[in-house]
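Chapter review: from sequence to fold.
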Amino acid sequence: MKIIVVRKKSNTDKLINEIENKELKEELEKYSNLDYNILMNLIILKVKEINDTLNDIKNILSKGIE
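The token string follows.
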């Protein structure tokens, strides 16, 4: 006798499916079993990290090559 467990699609799964950035999506899929709010916080942190990196690049470019 086989038992098949089907997991209901959660808000977390729906959120991950909405993300278009492939790298971010792949990284977040590792955490798909987490609570929705925890996942949202991870996304916020990841976006902040990306934004900080872009700001660093912007600052370097605005100074020009010395």
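Two observations follow directly from the output. The mean pLDDT is 77. The CA atoms of residues 44 and 50 lie 10 Å apart.
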